Amino acid sequence: MRSRKNSDPPGHIAIVLLTGLGDVVHGLPLVNALRDHYPSTRITWIVERMPGQLLSGHPSIDRIVVYRRSEGLTGIRQLRRDLNAGDPIDLTLNLNVYFKSVWPTLLSRAPRRIGFDRSRAFDGVWLASNERIPTRPRAHTADMTLEFADYLGVPVPTPEWRLAFSDAERHEQSGFFSRFDGRPVATIIPASATIKKDWMAERWATVADALESDFGMNVIIAGGPGEREQAAGREIVAKSSAKIEWTMGDSVRRLAWIVDKSNLLLAPDTGPIHVARALNVPVVGLFAHTNPWRVGPWRAFEDLWVDHYTDEGTAPNATDRKPKWDRMPTITVDEVLQRVQVAADKYSVARRRSVVPSSRAELR
Fold first, then answer.
1. Residue partners of 72: CB distance under 8 A and separation at least 6
2. CB under 8 A, 24+ apart: contacts of 277-284
3. 0.90 exceeded by pTM
4. What kind and span of H or E run contains 112?
5. Dist CA 349 CA 262 (whole Å)
6. CA dist., res. 231 & res. 226, Å (int)
7. Which pLDDT does position 290 carry in this prediction?
């Protein structure tokens, strides 16, 4: 369907982008572009609770509506009440491709509901929209999100995220990082939402040892409250000789300001790598199960990725979304520390350079 660009700005736009954390981050350049292009337009973001925390206080968002999807029919009814309590919505942009986005899109009651084309949406989601952006090959999630700006004729000269922290959060952040006496900090996110994306705890422990002893960095373990994440973090702490600062918990806002002041983030494919990208914090990303050219830090830090997803001798292909099982164990400690060395040399994340001992390449 062709774009129906309208010279009159919409009075109220709803964004449907529910989860996960990384996808919500990818939606921010679009929302900021909409705010700049339509300064008087009201913008509501419909989101689930966990990633919704990151949007709190964002300067381009007027209202956050939390969809409690886990509550089933009760959550749908509450969503309808919440949406009915606000101003009528003129335009809804459904940036999700899965069925969970159908109810928020329909309950927005917007006369224009724009979503992805049929070839890229799943579970009949395209039927909830009455306009669809043109069919294109799959690309990085952030690039696909910005296709909505192109469809609407909204310019995006320089993508911006504009993540902001309150004065109270900045005060808490300053107090927390004061314990490191100005030394550089590396934050490790030990686990993702899918175990197949994760790396082995004993190898993370070896990396933590090298970050402290070879690169002169303080080490933080961060992440969510999930049982598997917590268990991975505890195992790393137990097996490492480094003095690791434990910060794992359920506050997305706290995680974000920890990432913000870190000099380096190390993680598999998980939401905090995109928070780091938005805050311009260098990321050593470990990718083998998923495709970094589709889900990695967007247009940044490619020299720090460990990419075991792309087959040797083949060109990166952002259209490939097929998981590659059991590849994460092929990533070695030595490869990760080589990327840390690049970060030290190129991005000045550590105080001193270090030649990484080749013996660390051993698989433990």
1. none
2. 277/25, 277/301, 278/25, 278/28, 278/161, 278/163, 279/161, 279/163, 282/343, 282/347, 282/349, 284/336, 284/339, 284/340, 284/343
3. yes
4. strand 112-115
5. 9
6. 9
7. 96
